[in-house]
TrEMBL record:
Record-given protein name: S41 family peptidase
Domain PDZ: 100-177
Matching CDD domains: cpPDZ_CPP-like (cd06782), Peptidase_S41_CPP (cd07560)
Record-linked InterPro entries: ClpP/crotonase-like_dom_sf, CtpA/B_N, PDZ, PDZ_6, PDZ_sf, Peptidase_S41A, Tail-specific_protease
Source organism (scientific name): Blautia ammoniilytica
UniProt KW keywords: Hydrolase, Protease, Serine protease
Amino acid sequence: MADNNFWKGAAFGTAFTVAVAAGGYAGYKYAQVPADGTVLSDSARVQKLEYLEELIDTYYLEDKDEDELAEGLYAGLIYGLGDPYSRYYTAKEYQEENTSSQGSYVGIGVVMQENKEGGVQIVQCYEGGPGEAAGLKEGDVVSAVDGQDITESSVSEVASMIRDSDAENVILTVHRENADEPLTITVPITDVELPSVFHEMLEPKIGYIRITEFKGVTEEQYTTAFQDLKDQGMEKMIVDLRDNPGGLLDSVCDILRQILPEGLIVYTEDKNGNREEETCDGKNALDIPLAVLVNENSASASEIFAGAVKDYGIGTIVGTTTYGKGIVQSIRTLSDGSAVKLTVSKYYTPKGNNIHKTGITPDVEEKLDSNLLNKSDYSHEEDNQLQRAIQVLENDGESS
């Protein structure tokens, strides 16, 4: 068992993603003898592990990889908690998770998937990203990177080739529908920001902001969207958190500091009763009518947002009851680059409500029309939940 020097840092996280803070301890140390009451303090368990490895050595058809077996042991220990939100990350997995939660990475700003006929296919180019600017299009198939054939490579292998390159640009061999010859497209390798906020002006002067997840870059994107809508004359606002699984605690709190009056945003309590608070100074309190759209897939950080708005009565919650995740995860990085995410506390709305497994009940209940349930794309006019939110705002925010 490792002592506390094994940990290399800690920070808050919320459902489906984690918040990561800098700093921590250098290196890790192991205690000579496992402490009483730990899993490995029982010699019978250690002997069982040794026997299992003997079975592998004796009967397993392929060669074993001891490092991978060890990673499986670590993952299994956390899996044994029976907590769907706690997990062990290998160093590679943690790097990918950190990139996802922060919302920025080094690359070319595209989403790829494996192509059945070889290579990888571009399925999305991020707006304003280097790939789009260089001329890549959705549907393009890439067969070579810097002249190296990648028709037998996986998406992750291709992504690593690009991400780990020391060059400033990457040269892609691209096959495009209706093009007689392959194209050679040079794309800059730069810092890419993943979009998590989308906005537009609805009529009459209702600003619409959709937040897909609370990442490290989301607060800045929200600020830009809000200011653009204000410049267009926004007089009322809808924040759409439907299908938003959560994200970073810092991110949602920073956005709420641009909306809430002075007071408590959210607080957490661990198993020892230790309480930590996030507060707002109220200097940027929203002064226009607000509606917040939620559904059964709005979770964690989304529920922190909706819960604070509801408790302060500064907006109307429209939609269906939220997911109900009122617990917080902390992620700790280990000195070998791996990490462990553990559920460490419960969070409470400003009025002291813990919504775990119950969710937040909207002020205005509105289920999505059944004919839209299997549709991945539909217009604002078809979206009955959005139309109900507009109706609420047109009635000056009344929930009747």
